[in-house]
# Entry
Amino acid sequence: MQFAVLGPMEVRDDQVDVTPPAAMPRRVLATLLLHADQVVPIPTLIEELWDDEPPRLARKTVQTYVYQLRKALACGPTGGVRQLLETRPQGYRILLEPGELDLRLFEQRARIGRSALASGDVGSAASSLREALSVWRGDALTDLVPGPVLAAEASRLEDARRGVLEQRVEADLRLGLHRELIGELKVLMMRYPGHEEFCAKLMIAAYRSGRRDESLAAYDRLRRVVVEQTGLEPSERLRRLQHAVLVDSPSLSAPEPGSTPPPLREPPAELPPGPERIVGRAHDLALIGAALRRRPVTTSPGLVVVAGAQGTGKTATALFAAHRLREKFPDGQLFAALHADSGLPVDPLAVLQGFLRSVSTEEPPAALEAAARRFRSWTADRRVLVVLDDAASAAQVVPLLPNGRGCSTLITSRRLLPGLPGASVVRLGALDPCDAFQFLSLLVGEPRVLRDPEAALELTELCGGNPFAIRVAGERLAARPLLGLPELAERLRAEEWRLGELSIGCLDVRTQLLEAGRRLDRDERRALRLLAALGSGTFDLAQAMTALSADERTARRLLNSLIDAFLVDDTALADERSVIENAALLDDAASRGEDWSWTARRFHLPALLRLAWSEAKPSETETPRSRRRGVLCRTAARPHQSHAVRLLRYSCIAWGVTRYGSGKDS
# Structure
């Protein structure tokens, strides 16, 4: 069978047209085809068909549309021979063979063309890219009235088509086809009047064809459009190109016949593998996508920070979003982890040098500012996605930001990162009960969970909705088929055993939760231990001051630091009811001149974090730096060490006595 989506949607079975005639089943089929061989969740289909206003029996109606699709696809000569539509626990999947979908042929030819262009084989690149574009029969899904899902996919496909077209024109320019390109580029400039890449290629083609006036006129037309639409001037690269045309720069000369351009470095594609599916983060993914997609080439670079507590799936969510958006960034995707295995922040210079080695054969500068300038210059006229995982601070991130208007940066962090202008912040919290239940179902199988749904709900609740903790519980259940959900839930009920049960192999909840606080300073780690010792339930500022043996100003500072690091939850004034209940308390506070917001606020630690840190010894929460200090102190006891080192030893021991009551803990 042959399926076509790059134009009006068509389905042909041995030249027999079996395209579903009804509009809604056609939209279901289009959604499945654009995610071929992947399970499309039923909520996604419902969102596509009805957006925010689904009917009461939406799920049943989707089942009816799928049934109609099965009948339509089975009408052809071969349609009834094989099962095309597969029902899965969470949705549906269409199974295709190689060569059956025009989109896959386009993507395959485009990959071959890009690879040939990067290696310097310009003739083969132009041929492959032209074959890729010939698959298109018009705008994607032009005969459908798309919902939000198909509209986003159609936009993505159009971006991919335009990117391949840019590369094919580039290949033709390298082949010397300047005169032949002028007419086509003028048509493209009418279709995309603000597109700087097509304007630059038209200027070069016209100049090399001896039409200098047309080259300058193309720049003037684009400048008027850009100024009217954005109030900004064209990019520096285009302004430099106009100046080169004005002064007849030798750099614009066509390459000598038969000369081979130097091979280009392949655009970097450094994203680690992402999860196949994300549960409970649809809204967060929509926010990330909106923040990155809404920035066309003529605006400032996109910047999104995904922040949340340890184990909430920040990296998985960011990678899932990055893989979905990678087609929008044809000039490459760069990835860097900003913390080493030791837990220490990575030097931004080392990250920049790695980026520059990925995109250039030149040796990167040895100074941070010089490396940052070179990276900004390289990204100025490109569309690149930079993913920075586990950032420590805004100061670490700023030198790593790309400069191009078509670039975007996606950052994950365990704390808020104030000081990044224009950043969109997406906060990840615990999964709600329904999403946590679904996540557990994916890990251990839906039939097993549905046999004991109450135990499954209790288990996810005892995990605090933390995705990592649920994953560990799911891995335990998957590894032991005879372990029942009620049995594991019963083990988790006892707080003294809970963290011990949430461990399997290298996955250990206690270790991860202790790691969450090791990046804090000494006072913050001490505060976290003391607040954890308060037990379950909430506490107010006065209780925190008592527990910390601190004055009000110090307690506020420590609480704010822990809240910014997502280690303490602020439950104050969560809804209108709590405001009303605290009205009298607030009035009393105001009459005394106190800060009412702090008077009414309540705080609590997530249960698993509280258990980990209330049980932890000071030595378990040391930072790598403090561990090295302990080694240095023990080494200082050797008689052959210098007098200065022995003094350092005594100072460290004295600090330990005042801090913990004995030098043993220092």
In short: Residues 573-586, 624-666 have pLDDT under 50 and may be disordered.
